Amino acid sequence: MSDVILLSREGAVATVVLNRPEKLNALTKAMWQRLGEVIAALSSDDTVRCVIVRGAGEKSFSPGNDIAEFATERANKAQAIAYGQAMHGALHALDACRHPLIAQIHGICVGGGVEIASLCDMRICGEGSRFGVPIKNLGLTMAYAEMAPLLRLVGPAVALEMLLEGRVFDAAEAKEKGLVTRVVPDGDVVAEARATAERIADGAPLVARWHKKFARRLLDPRPLSDAEREECFDCFDTEDFRAGYAAFLAKKKPAFKGR
After folding, report:
1. What is the pLDDT of residues 128-154, one digit of tens each?
2. CB–CB of 240/256 below 8 Å?
3. Fold adopted by 2-201
4. Are the C-beta atoms of 89 and 145 separated by less than 8 Å?
5. Which of 35, 104, 183, 207 could make an S-S bridge to 54, C-beta 3.0–4.6 Å?
6. What Rg value do the Cα atoms of the chain yield, rounded?
7. For the segment 197-216, what is each residue's pLDDT rounded down to a tens digit?
8. What residues have CB less than 8 Å from 31, skipping those under 6 apart?
9. CA distance 72 to 11
10. From CA 20, how far away is CA 216, in angstroms rounded?
11. What are phi and psi of 129, to 5 degrees?
C-alpha cells in the first residue's frame, strides 16, 4: 500500500507522488487513505517548508477515481459512504496542511485530480494539460467535502459550469477560470514547480504558515477577535524576523530557522 503514494525529500521541499502510472494515476481507496496519512505526517513536520503534489510520469496528474473499483468499493450507498470517509479524510488532510502545497500538473487533471489540485495553494500546469469534472456522465454527484474547495477556488458560477456541462477543457481556459495559477510549456513544468517550491522554502516558514491561516480565516464571515488581530504581530517576536531584518540591512540572504 505504501507504494501507491511515494514520498521524497530534497532539503525542506517534500514531493508526494500519486503512483499508479499504468492507470494514469487513477485513484483507489487505498491511495486516498495513504495520501491522507502522508500529508498529515508532513503537516506535523516543522522541517518541511513546501510540499509538491504530482502524479507519476508526465502523462497525467490524475483522471480521478478508478471506475474499475466501483463494482467492489462503491456499488451502493453504504459502500460509497465508507469510500467517502477515506477520500474525505485525505481531502481534509490537504485542507489542514500547514505548509504551502503546490500541485505540479502534467497532462490529465480530472475529477478527483481536480479536487486534490483545488486544495493546493498553487497549481502549475503544462500547456497540454486538460481539466474537467465529467461525473454527470457516471450519474454521480460531488459531495459537499469535495465541492467546497472547488467553489472556494473558482466561485459558484464556474464550479456549476464544470459540473453541469462535464466538459474537459484546456490549460488556457483553466487559467482563465482561475483553476490554475500558472501555465508553462509542458517541458518546463518540473523546473517551474521546483523553482516555485524553492522560492517558498527560502522564505520564513512561520510566515508562510501564518499567511495560509490568515487567508483562510478571512473567508470566514465571523468577525475577527482581538486575539486574532494581535496574532498578526506575533512575527515580530520571532528569531526569523530578527534574522530577516538584519540580513536586509546587511544586504545578505537570510537563513531562517522557523523559530
Report:
1. 999 999 999 999 999 999 999 999 999
2. yes
3. 2-enoyl-CoA Hydratase; Chain A, domain 1 (3.90.226)
4. no
5. 104
6. 19
7. 999 999 999 999 999 999 99
8. 4, 5, 18, 20
9. 41
10. 32
11. -70, 155
Rounded to whole angstroms, how far apart are CA atoms 186 and 31?
26
Q: 122-126 and 101-105: which strand pairing?
A: parallel
Task: Tell me the C-alpha distance between 173 and 162, whole Å.
Answer: 12
Closest CA to 116 of 42, 64, 169, 177: 64
Cα-based torsion angle of the residue sequence 40, 25, 63, 104 in order, rounded to the nearest 10 degrees: 60
Which residues, at least 6 apart from 156, have a Cβ–Cβ distance to it below 8 Å?
Answer: none
Q: Using CA atoms, how far apart are residues 209 and 219, in angstroms rounded to an integer?
A: 16
Query: Domain residues of the chain, as ranges?
Result: 2-201, 204-250
In the numeric block, which cell numbers belong to residue 84? Answer: 467517502
Q: How far is CA 29 from CA 109, 147, 193, 204, 249, in A?
A: 18, 19, 27, 36, 52
3-state helix, strand, coil in the chain (%, to 5): 55, 15, 30
Which H or E run includes 51? strand 50-55
How high is the pLDDT of residue 249? 87
pTM beyond 0.90, yes or no: yes
Taken in order 240, 200, 103, 51, the sign of the CA dihedral is negative
243, 206 contact by CB (below 8 A): no
* Three cell numbers written together for 204: 520564513
What SS3 class is residue 52? Answer: strand
